[in-house]
Amino acid sequence: MVSPQPVPVVKDPTARVVPELDIVYVEWKSAQKPQSKNMDTMYTVRHKSGNEQSSWKYVRTAESNVRIPLSTYKNGENVHIQIKTERGSQLLEDWTTPELVVAVAKKSVRSAPFRLSPPPAQPQAPAHSPQASAPVHPQSQVHAPLALAPQNAQSGGGSLLPPLHFNANILSPTTVQLKWQPAISGRQGIYYLVNVKQLTTASGSTLQNQQIKTAATSFTLGKMIAGEKYEMTIRSATSQDTTSGTAAIVEITMPREDDYFEIGNLIISSHFRNPSHGIVNLTWEVPPQMQNRISSYNVEYSEMGSGYWQKIQFHGASSSAALHHLKSNTEYLLRIKTNLVNNIVTESGQFRFRTPRVEANPIHKVDVIYSHDVNSVKLQWMLEPHILAEKVAGYDVYLSQDKDLPDSQWKLVRLNNKESSLSLEDLKSSTIYFVRVNVRNADGSVIRAPSVYRFKTIDWSNTNPNADFNPFDD
């Protein structure tokens, strides 16, 4: 006799891309009957890309649909989706299988207009959201659905959406910073209800639960317990009776003291050859006990005020990084995230630094013309196009056999005319010389050349008079 199969709670789940709304729309049918206000069925939808290294992002809702922003994923990626059902603290149905998979196509998509009716008004969510059993990466960003109702819609549970990009940054074993972005920028009268729920009590402490009401989009939470796991949920609200029917959630495990590491003593050095291309080297110290506990680093840097962050990632065995293609005399912001082997992610906070000022090279090139008759050479140079020849009053030509000497110890030849050439006499045989040409303007200003040119004189003791000679050869 065959036993009957249990009826699934989530029936006929589907997911599709709606390019007109810039979302992935996920919907399903529910086999559950409506319950009392305090026993609502809650669904947790998790989604991620098909990349093995990607982490799940979570959205919790009392509705039978969610809207995932397409901006979360790149064009051509596959989005994997699963749904879990809970009522109160009871798990009704674990993650649905098989996973829903939808391909993201943001370009050249043509389809008939797709309209979604505004979601029905939902009853007020309980003060403490039900526990989610699936782990969330400490630094994962939880994206709430995008708003579909017009902005002039009346306030209510169905027209409010939770904030976007809800994430938690661990600042110390007992401190965490929560950040998010408004679902609708500029909307007035919105505040946020953040519920913090302690999930474990390995330390033997009493489980902590608290609710924070704030109109800001970030705050720092202290007095956390090292080693314990916490769940944070956030909802938008216009009053105590009007909150979003969907909540964004994130789970974190606070690190223990001996498992925590953040970059503190950061050494920044720069090397620039011209104003638009330079390298900034970063080095820091790692305590011996943390040498094998760091899996990788994420380094992000941005030109001040640009809002555009460039990112590099590298293995945790290295405690240095090089930032390429930076501008000279420019202020940058820098932040470094440390990924530990215990899946804890710590952020160093923001460093601010300014790259050194480097003048544009006024000299395009220097040619060395060698004479076989006497031990002399003739230097000829060309100005860069951005240097106006009519403003040039003369040149300062510096010559030395040691490029590391200060300017005062180089031989200086001052040319008080616009002639861009100089003959150098009585040079030593088979000797390397370094030369730099600065430009003097008619207004008295000097354009210092950052580039130093190198050439070698001919070896008179072993010379074939008929042989060609390259003064730049070693």
UniProtKB/TrEMBL annotation:
Lineage top rank: taxon: Eukaryota
SUPFAM superfamilies: Fibronectin type III
Classification via CDD domains: FN3 (cd00063)
Record domain Fibronectin type-III: where: 162-257, 262-358, 362-460
InterPro entries: ECM_Regulatory_Proteins (IPR050991), FN3_dom (IPR003961), FN3_sf (IPR036116), Ig-like_fold (IPR013783)
PROSITE patterns xref list: FN3
Region: Disordered, residue numbers: 113-141
Bias (Low complexity): 124-135
Keywords: Repeat
Pfam families: fn3
Official protein name in the record: Fibronectin type-III domain-containing protein
